[in-house]
Specification:
Largest sheet: 5 strands, mixed
CATH architecture of one domain: 2-Layer Sandwich
CATH topology of one domain: Nucleotidyltransferase, domain 5
Order of helices and strands: EEHEEEHEHE
Length: 145
């Protein structure tokens, strides 16, 4: 801290003038400013956005049509909710023949009851195979665990 003391002659006010030497404060401030500029990461003025890449492929095909065949415990067959009697093999064959004749065959889901005898399920599967139905599967197997 520096003080400005008046000269010995002339002025006899007796006031002492005290001023702070700001040169070291400015030096410290400049050093801190330079350190701040060096340590700050380089800022990019762009916002990174993960945009989807355009896909020129064809859209996915429509979901396949599903035909549900339910076989009840007494051999009654249900075709998408429509009841067909067990002894009416001609009706089952006509329905399966219509499925086999389609160019893009729908999926056939065969869902037997837990208590049905095997001959009814085997008859439907054999008829479907004989007529050329290729997309057939048994669903509902969790009931047999």
């Amino acid at each position: 801290m520096a003080m400005n003391v008046g000269s010995s002659g002339g002025d006899e006010d007796g006031d002492v003038m005290v001023d702070i030497n700001t040169t070291p404060l400015i030096d410290v401030m400049l050093v801190l400013l330079i350190m701040f500029i060096i340590t700050i990461p380089i800022q990019t003025h762009a916002v990174k956005m993960n945009m989807p890449i355009p896909n020129n492929n064809a859209p996915p095909p429509k979901p396949p049509e599903i035909i549900r065949i339910d076989v009840d415990f007494d051999g009654t067959v249900g075709w998408n909710g429509e009841v067909i009697q067990a002894g009416d093999r001609a009706s089952i064959e006509s329905h399966l023949q219509a499925v086999a004749a389609m160019a893009d065959q729908p999926e056939v889901h065969l869902r037997p009851n837990k208590l049905v005898t095997y001959k009814y399920v085997a008859m439907i599967m054999a008829t479907a195979q004989r007529l050329g139905v290729t997309k057939i599967g048994i669903v509902g197997n969790e009931q047999f665990l």
